[in-house]
Amino acid sequence: MSDSNNFKLINGVFDAIEAREILTNIISSKIQFHSIRVFSISERFGINDQVSRERIEQLKETKIELLRLIEVADRNNKKLSITSNIDIRLVD
After folding, report:
1. Rounded to whole angstroms, how far apart are CA atoms 76 and 40?
2. Which of 1, 27, 34, 41 could make an SS bond with 52 (beta carbons 3.0 to 4.6 A apart)?
3. Which tens digit of pLDDT belongs to each residue from 35-89?
4. What string of DSSP letters covers the chain?
5. What predicted TM-score, i.e. pTM, was given to this entire model?
């Protein structure tokens, strides 16, 4: 395994229902991750995890934008081509 790796997470053409399910599940999982992190850090250390709070807001905005795009595709009987890669690099 090299110091830099690329993994294909999503690669396909989806109808609006499939796209909504896939993308909202991913975003919801990320929101849940950061929400748990905010709670955990607050309980354990008594500090406010502003980075995760800001990320939650960004993710919520992204979700709204994606749902608007998916709605446009649905109204126009279009499919959505979605590609998502994850790049992972080992760092010191």
Report:
1. 44
2. 34
3. 999 999 999 999 999 999 999 999 999 999 999 999 999 999 999 999 999 999 9
4. --SEEEEEEEEEEE-HHHHHHHHHHHHHHHHHHHHHHHHHHHHHH----HHHHHHHHHHHHHHHHHHHHHHHHHHTT--EEEEEEEEEE---
5. 0.86
pLDDT at 1 over 70: no
Q: Residue 57 carries which side chain, given as an amino acid letter?
A: E
Q: How many CB atoms are closer than 10 A to CB 19? A: 23
Q: And the tokens for 5?
A: 């790796």
Q: Which amino acid is at 63?
A: K
Q: From CA 28, how far away is CA 12, in angstroms rounded?
A: 21
Q: Are 16 and 76 in contact (CB under 8 A)?
A: no
